[in-house]
Amino acid sequence: EGGRSREIEQSCTMCSLGILRLRNVYRQLFSSYKFNKCILKQSDNVQFKSVLRSNLASDVSKIDSMNTKSNLEKDKLLFYYENPKFFYFLNGFAFVQFFFWVHMAEFSFTQMKDVKVDKTNPDLPWWRKLHFENDFTRSAVAVFCFLLGYGILSTAWIYTLRSVRMLVLRKGGKSVTFVTYGPFGRNKHLDVSLQQITTNQTRSSARVQLPIKVQGKWFYYILDTRNGTFPNPELFDFTAGMKRTLK
Predict the structure, then answer these.
(1) Which residues cross the membrane (predicted)?
(2) What is the biggest distance separating any 2 CA atoms in the chain, rounded to whole angstroms?
(3) pTM for this one?
(4) For a FRET experiment, which of 13, 33, 59, 196 has its CA 20 to 30 Å from that of 50?
(5) Which residue stretches of the chain are H helix?
(6) Higher pLDDT, 207 or 51
(7) Beta-carbon neighbour count of residue 39 at 10 Å?
(8) Of 224, 216, 171, which is closest to residue 195 (Cα–Cα)?
(9) What is the sign of the dihedral through the CA atoms of 30, 36, 39 and 44?
């Protein structure tokens, strides 16, 4: 019995020693795991910061490259839109409409006569009750016809003169030239500094037309982004396509 008790004590002692060793090994593994996790987290942060710095550096270099590109040694074409037939038809239609309504104004003022109608009829429209031989009525109709024709012609001319055919970045990268269509087929030119133009839209967001405001000019200059072409899109974005505060 004494020998068996000793064997039991020895086995218990061995078990306790084994448990202590396992606990020490577990502590070492756990501490090494925490250390490795911390190291990995730090390495991830360092890697993320390095990637962020590289991206920022690439963006800065890209902007610098655009600035160097904008300091041009020769002119650069930023945009062009070739569709002269449309503007020929548009202005031809406007001229025809103008002369037609001018003729209607002259006819209304000189040849218009009153037609006798039963003005006591309650179902008669109000315009049938007008007395067209009255000077005021004939003058009002004539003025309305003339203004209608003049409005059609003016709208066509303004749209033509503000439709950009070519946009050229001039030598040195400090100014641009707007080449627009003309009502009689001849191009119109406008040289303006980059600091005097601004746009509220980006080239990518303007799906149909991109309006550009020129300081001191009425109405916007229009770039047809659907049918037009940007030969140097990035250069356009960093020059004429930027939003500026006009003084």
Answers:
(1) 86-104, 140-161
(2) 146
(3) 0.65
(4) 33
(5) 2-70, 84-110, 135-161, 233-237
(6) 207
(7) 10
(8) 216
(9) negative
